[in-house]
């Protein structure tokens, strides 16, 4: 198969990409698409239109502000960069090949992706919170429409999926996948050690509750792709790769062959992502030992960076050329990040959501909440408590006042019921003429 860049250079027409959201992530992706031969940003959207205009000027591109779907399509056909504050125009266009959702709006981001898929656009999700909350629903709709739904490259979850796919191809068993949290001793000046007798046979474990919720969301996204589970809490901060192996009870994983995911507390020398894999094959162990990876049977494969927007475009190309995703929640909603009380909370308190003063997020499997419906922290902000909740106790859906018909919750409940395994015949797939030789040769 021809390499992606050569395939891009051989295209008769550029891949037309729309980006919704001109914040730091969106601006970086717009730049990268513009810098990639064979790809073209055709429309940029921000609800503050001056930000979208500033981005177009920064790219030194001729642009026009559009207010209607007809005006958007005319601009695309004339090769001009369209700028708008109306995302509904973009997700309704049939002239866009790939839509990248880069906003921080959870419910609106999910709605943008849903409508884009319904209009036969491939959707790449850089909006991690919407990806986690609504990904299974969006994957189902993408299957039904014959288009791709994918998490964006350049995220920890996508980088880990790439590494996992490679190691899995070698025949090793995946045991643990995670993102390093560097300078952990400094993040928590007084390192909190807690006893977790209900989760492990070992004594003292590091309390990772205060780790940035955004990283936990990335791990949940990955878990929903690989059917992972939450790791037992580590017993130490990893200052070397070898420490990653000794910080977890990895033998428990090899018994049930369900990989763990975690935010790995580390010293300042470890950054990026890591995958721990296992093999008991002596021939493989000898080669890995010669490569300096240790005596086995557990091995750490470390990538010291996640390159953000710089590596964001490969998944867009693969969706367009191959109809494949980098990763998506193929196993449905297996994990989420659920709300717990950070302190004693009283009836009538208003929750402040992610990284707030009242709640923490814990990475847990849905099945851990069989006896009660947990409240995902991504959609908790602004909800009023209906009951007191003690410190470190879970906050359930029954504990808060919410409207099940509100967009954030209605999409979530649909995502919980989504059929991500159903494969619909690709009758309406977006196959353009210049792609046919590649598809036929695959």
From TrEMBL:
Domain Oxidoreductase DRL-like catalytic: 158-306
Name of protein: Homoserine dehydrogenase
Taxonomic source organism: Pseudochryseolinea flava
InterPro entries recorded: DRL_cat, NAD(P)-bd_dom_sf
Matching Pfam families: DRL_cat (PF21135)
């Amino acid at each position: 198969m021809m390499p992606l860049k050569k395939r891009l250079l051989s295209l008769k027409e550029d891949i037309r990409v729309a980006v919704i959201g001109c914040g730091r992530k969106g601006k970086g992706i717009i730049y990268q698409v513009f810098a990639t031969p064979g790809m073209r940003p055709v429309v940029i959207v921000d609800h503050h239109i001056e930000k979208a205009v500033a981005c177009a000027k920064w790219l030194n591109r001729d642009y026009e502000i559009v207010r209607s779907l007809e005006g958007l399509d005319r601009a695309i056909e004339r090769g001009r960069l369209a700028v708008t504050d109306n995302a509904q125009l973009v997700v309704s266009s049939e002239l866009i090949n790939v839509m990248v959702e880069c906003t921080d709006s959870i419910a609106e981001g999910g709605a943008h992706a849903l409508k884009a898929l319904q209009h036969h656009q491939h959707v790449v999700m850089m909006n991690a919170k919407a990806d986690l909350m609504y990904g299974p629903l969006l994957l189902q709709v993408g299957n039904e429409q014959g288009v791709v739904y994918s998490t964006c490259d350049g995220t920890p979850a996508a980088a880990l999926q790439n590494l996992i796919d490679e190691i899995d191809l070698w025949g090793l068993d995946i045991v643990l996948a995670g993102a390093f949290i560097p300078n952990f001793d400094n993040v928590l000046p007084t390192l909190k050690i807690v006893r977790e007798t209900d989760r492990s046979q070992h004594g003292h474990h590091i309390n990772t509750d205060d780790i940035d919720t955004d990283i936990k969301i990335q791990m949940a996204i990955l878990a929903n792709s690989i059917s992972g589970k939450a790791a037992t809490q580590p017993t130490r901060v990893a200052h070397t790769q070898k420490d990653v192996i000794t910080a977890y009870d990895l033998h428990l994983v090899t018994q049930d062959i369900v990989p763990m995911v975690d935010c790995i507390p580390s010293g300042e020398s470890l950054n990026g992502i890591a995958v721990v894999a296992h093999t008991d094959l002596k021939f493989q162990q000898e080669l890995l030992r010669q490569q300096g990876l240790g005596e086995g049977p557990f091995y750490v494969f470390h990538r010291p960076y996640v390159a953000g927007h710089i590596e964001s475009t490969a998944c867009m190309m693969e969706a367009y050329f191959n109809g494949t995703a980098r990763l998506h929640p193929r196993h449905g909603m297996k994990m989420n990040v659920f709300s717990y009380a950070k302190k004693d909370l009283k009836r009538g308190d208003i929750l402040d959501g992610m990284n707030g003063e009242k709640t923490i997020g814990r990475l847990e499997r849905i099945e851990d909440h069989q006896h009660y419906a947990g409240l995902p922290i991504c959609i908790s902000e602004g909800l009023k408590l209906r009951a007191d909740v003690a410190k470190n106790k879970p906050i359930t859906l029954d504990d808060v006042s919410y409207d099940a018909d509100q967009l954030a919750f209605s999409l979530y409940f649909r995502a919980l019921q989504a059929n991500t395994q159903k494969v619909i015949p690709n009758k309406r797939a977006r196959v353009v003429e210049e792609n046919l030789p590649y598809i036929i040769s695959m």
